[in-house]
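Format notes (please read before filing issues)

Several people have asked whether sequences and structure tokens are stored in separate files. They are not. Every record keeps both together, in the order shown below: the sequence lines, then the token lines. Line labels are part of the format and must not be stripped during preprocessing.
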Amino acid sequence: MEFLNLSLLENAFLELLGFNLSGPVGLFFGLVIFCLLLIFFRYEGLSVSKTEEVSNFEEVGDPTEAKINLSRSYIEMGKYNEASIYLKEVLALKHIKKNQREVADLLLARIDNDQV
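Then the structure lines:
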């Protein structure tokens, strides 16, 4: 099992640093480096500003289509109130494609038929 041969790793650190890192000193040094790397990468992940975030609907493409698809899912689950909220939001938009308006109207009619 050559990959478990720690003497090669110890020799590489000896050549790199100039002193031996075996035993508890090497373990402590490795843990310190590991913690510093974790802090660095965590800091990089948190440094994204809130203005750069994109809304959930923009991540999936056209927000209108996303709302229509979400309302379809709610209808299939029997959650008609949630579906009608999203469909009414879609129909309230000024710049909506004709086919999107037709689909929203059909889904609202389906909700009315299913609730009766």
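For reference, the curators noted about this record: The mean pLDDT is 80. The domain at 56-115 is CATH 1.20.58 (Methane Monooxygenase Hydroxylase; Chain G, domain 1).
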